[in-house]
């Protein structure tokens, strides 16, 4: 499915690349020929993803980052550019998702609310801000923000998370309008409930969860998101910006 060479010569940063969807994006981009900065709060796991890429003959670098911290996001961009001289693709995938306790909206504390917004919404903004000088200088770039289909469906006891993923779509549209003149494309992917380590921790019997609601009646796997990400990262999507692709096996229509 991944066409080798389709991202040849490109340099990508994937935040939250240590595991789950982020790791699937890293491996696919590397297979397509991109050099990949695997950036994550969990540096040790980011190194594992990097080792997997290197073992297959790809090019990768593990970077520690807290996307909610401006200095850290700027350092991530600078270290990537220092290593490869350019930044072509940013996947804003890191988020507070795994381990986030579900609770009624009136039981969420202001501190919990603020932390989800800081990582899930401010994080993508700070990372876009950090890579934009390189992309602007190149007059080209692809920013891919990871939202969630739960923004369209709503979800009880998840108000901070659902709201944050709506914020990601707002950010996508705003940046698309602002960066189009620089040849920078900004799009989003809204995955459905996908069988990652985080999902399996959150929901019992995750492999059955919501399957009957889909048009395609099987559980979504991280690899199911790879096609959309490769498309948005490549020149095949060069006249597309500000859009959100829902990839969920037909559970949710926009
Ligand atoms: N798995 C799903 O069902 C699903 C569905 C829709 C959307 N999503 C979105 O897809 C993305 C990945 O989901 P996943 O299931 O792989 O989740 P995950 O929790 O396994 O992965 C998130 C990654 O982000 C990293 N991270 C967390 N906070 C960070 C920070 N402040 N700075 C840098 N890195 C940080 C974590 O260490 C982790 O590696 C998230 O944006 C999530 O909201 C997931």
Report on this model:
The structure is a single chain. The chain is an alpha/beta fold and 254 residues long. The chain has one domain (11-247): Rossmann fold, CATH 3.40.50. The chain is built from 8 helices and 7 strands; from the N terminus they run βαβαβαβαβααβααβ. It has a 7-stranded parallel sheet, with helices on both faces. α1 packs parallel to α2 (43-55), α3 (70-84) runs parallel beside α4 and α4 (110-138) packs parallel to α6 (159-179). The longest helix has 29 residues, at 110-138. The protein is globular. The mean pLDDT is 97. The structure holds nicotinamide-adenine-dinucleotide. Nicotinamide-adenine-dinucleotide binds next to α1 and α7.
What are the distinct ligands in this entry? nicotinamide-adenine-dinucleotide
Structural class: alpha/beta
- Under CATH at level 1, the class stands as Alpha Beta
The total of helices stands at 8
How much of the polypeptide forms β-strand, as a percent range? Answer: 15-25%
What would the principal axes of the Cα set say about the shape? globular
The low-pLDDT segments are: none
Radius of gyration: 17 Å
The major β-sheet equals: 7 strands, parallel
As a percent range, the share of helical residues equals 40-55%
Q: How far is the N terminus from the C terminus?
A: 26 Å
Quick one: how many beta strands? 7
Estimate nothing, just give the exact number of structural domains: 1
* Level-2 CATH architecture: 3-Layer(aba) Sandwich
